[in-house]
């Protein structure tokens, strides 16, 4: 197996217009395909399950839901999103390097590309109604990561723990705010139950916590109402989803920047170091696998067990934050997910180098090449299966049953994506994005 294979070679074109074909590195498309399919594992419960869906079986080791959830948390949760962000960072270099080597400025073209991606993300969240959209964030944060694309890889990698710690501090401050509101609320309620007349400050504390609680910790009656919205008409679902999506894209944007930025910078560094282009030796990839799984798996298993014991339900979570001002266990999260993500990538690269699973690798390459289209396809399929204006299966399946649909979508995309690319140069959404970026119609049908 060649260390670097080229599926499409860019035609020489000295004009500012885009060439008809672009150079692609197969292994990056394969890794992107793995990330794209893996993300559905974590996304599908949020298309289909009501709030607190894990509570009935969160500590029940006899329930299959518990073990499916455990596997998801240990091997996939956070790792697939990290992988997708890392490959996106590498894509920044891929998009700009050839143009800059030819003496052309890629800045405005790249920013146009990101602006359109941001708009696609808004449409994804507010029209297709996927509350977990990442395109909007990638568009905005990609503009920031672009500024670091020429920095030496060692500095980019050094920035990863720094940015991760900044993210931890930002989230800790946010949790401190919530904790403060909750403690003030508790004092006010205790005073009220003692028969005291509440002061304006105590009344304000109760109102502040009630607003926060309703937004982030709905009670059982509100969960029932929210489920009814999701099982209603398009207008019902939109009325429930859009305000939450907009809050995530505006009010809480500052908390999303750090994670994605750090991983994009890591992706730029790993691309320039040759990790993502198979320039490392097989011994180095094997070492990465041993280190990644050897350290990452014990960390994530400890974290999973700790969270299972201390956070089986909302009440336990509130009791915990009442007694703990900082959740130090959260520091484990970024380290274990990056370690395991790196091991995942090294394993895929090693399997590819050795020529194993050739048909699967070809399917993953095609899925990754059509990642934008396939990502949106996930949302279209899931909303039409689970939301009220579709098949209305929201809150009706067991957790483990969701993964029959995941497997079905995987098989479909692994089969249809290579077939599509035999006839077309790009996926439909990739083609549209390319046309909008370059400001002119691009070739679409493969000759």
Automatic annotation (TrEMBL):
The keyword Transmembrane helix applies. It holds the Pfam family DUF418. Residues 270-439 form the DUF418 domain. InterPro entries: Bact_Transport_Assoc, DUF418. The chain crosses the membrane at residues 27-46, 66-94, 155-174, 252-273, 285-306, 326-352, 372-390, 402-421. Keywords: Membrane, Transmembrane, Transmembrane helix. PANTHER family: INNER MEMBRANE PROTEIN. This is DUF418 domain-containing protein.
């Amino acid at each position: 197996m060649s260390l670097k294979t080229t599926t499409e070679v860019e035609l020489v074109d000295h004009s500012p217009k885009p060439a008809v074909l672009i150079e692609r590195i197969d292994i990056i498309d394969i890794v992107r395909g793995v990330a794209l399919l893996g993300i559905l594992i974590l996304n599908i419960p949020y298309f289909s399950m009501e709030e607190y869906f894990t509570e009935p079986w969160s500590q029940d080791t006899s329930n299959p839901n518990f073990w499916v959830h455990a596997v998801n948390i240990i091997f996939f949760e956070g790792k697939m999103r990290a992988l997708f962000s890392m490959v996106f960072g590498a894509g920044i270099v891929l998009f700009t390097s050839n143009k800059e080597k030819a003496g052309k400025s890629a800045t405005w073209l790249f920013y146009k590309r990101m602006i359109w991606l941001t708009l696609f993300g808004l449409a994804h969240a507010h029209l297709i109604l996927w509350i977990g959209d990442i395109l909007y964030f990638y568009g905005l944060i990609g503009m920031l990561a672009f500024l670091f694309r020429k920095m030496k890889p060692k500095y980019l990698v050094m920035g990863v723990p720094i940015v991760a710690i900044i993210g931890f501090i930002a989230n800790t401050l946010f949790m401190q705010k919530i904790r403060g509101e909750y403690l003030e609320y508790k004092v006010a309620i205790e005073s009220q139950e003692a028969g005291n007349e509440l002061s304006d400050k105590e009344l304000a504390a109760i109102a502040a916590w009630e607003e926060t609680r309703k937004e982030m910790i709905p009670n059982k009656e509100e969960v029932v109402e929210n489920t009814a919205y999701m099982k209603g008409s398009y207008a019902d679902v939109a009325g429930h989803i859009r305000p939450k999506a907009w809050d995530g894209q505006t009010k809480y944007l500052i908390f999303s920047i750090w994670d994605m930025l750090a991983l994009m910078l890591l992706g730029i560094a790993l691309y320039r170091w040759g990790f993502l282009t198979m320039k490392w030796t097989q011994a180095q990839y094997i070492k990465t696998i041993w280190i990644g799984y050897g350290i990452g798996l014990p960390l994530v298993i400890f974290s999973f067990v700790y969270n299972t014991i201390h956070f089986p339900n909302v009440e336990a979570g509130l009791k915990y934050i009442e007694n703990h001002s900082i959740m130090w266990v959260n520091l484990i999260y970024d380290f274990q997910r990056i370690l395991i993500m790196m091991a995942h990538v090294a394993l895929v690269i090693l399997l590819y180098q050795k020529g194993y699973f050739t048909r699967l690798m070809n399917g993953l390459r095609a899925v990754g090449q059509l990642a934008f289209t396939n990502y949106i396809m996930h949302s279209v399929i899931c909303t039409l299966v689970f939301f009220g204006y579709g098949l209305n299966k929201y809150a009706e399946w067991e957790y483990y049953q969701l993964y029959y649909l995941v497997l079905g979508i995987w098989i479909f995309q692994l089969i249809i994506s290579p077939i599509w690319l035999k006839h077309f140069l790009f996926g439909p959404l990739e083609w549209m994005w390319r046309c909008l970026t370059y400001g002119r119609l691009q070739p679409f049908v493969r000759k």
